[in-house]
Amino acid sequence: MPQNYIDNPSSVIEEVFGQIHQNQMSEMPFVNEKLQVKAVGFSEYEGDWLGVLLTPWTLSIMLLPSENRDWREFDIGEKVGIRLPAGDYNFIYGEHENLGHYLSCSVQSPVQDFTSQEDALRVAGDVRKLITAIQTTDIADKSKRGLFRKLASGQAALESE
Question: From CA 89, how far away is CA 23, in angstroms rounded?
């Protein structure tokens, strides 16, 4: 069943989850009928395909193997910790006969708060940008201004904190 993707897997993801919506999820009470299935921002990230999947029932981060990647076998439903620049995330291993294996991390479920596809796509795009954004920290005390403030006050410039 493993399937590795040479090209962007967005169209396959959309087809598979579109069929899941149509065949299995469309009558569920938590489905937001204002939304459609859309793969957002999939690109290669550290050797795999990373992006966000919007469906009428969830907004999820997804990871799929790219060419020449050999993921170890997981049990369906097994939790896998993944560290991304924005933090640590718990993904769940899944498989589908037409998609292969993938990791998925729910960001929001259900997605009833979205009033339009455009709003949901904007949030999905923001999530995609944020998960690989470089983390920042408060470095004000270590800035040049902090150094000069310490010097002006007579404190040792290199005292340990």
Answer: 30
Express as a percent the part of the chain with pLDDT over 90.
Answer: 75
Distant-in-sequence, close-in-space partners of 87: CB < 8 Å, separation ≥ 6: 135
Give the burial class of 49: count Cβ atoms within 10 A of its Cβ; 0-12 exposed, 13-18 middle, 19 or more buried. Answer: buried
Candidates 21, 82, 75; CA nearest to 53 is 21
DSSP letter for each residue of 53-100: EE-SS-EEEEEEEBTT--PPP--TT-EEEEEETTEEEEEEEEEETTTE
Query: What is the per-residue pLDDT across 101-112, written as a single tens digit (0 to 9) for each?
Result: 999 999 999 999
CB 103 within 8 Å of CB 93: yes
Q: What is the DSSP letter of 109?
A: S
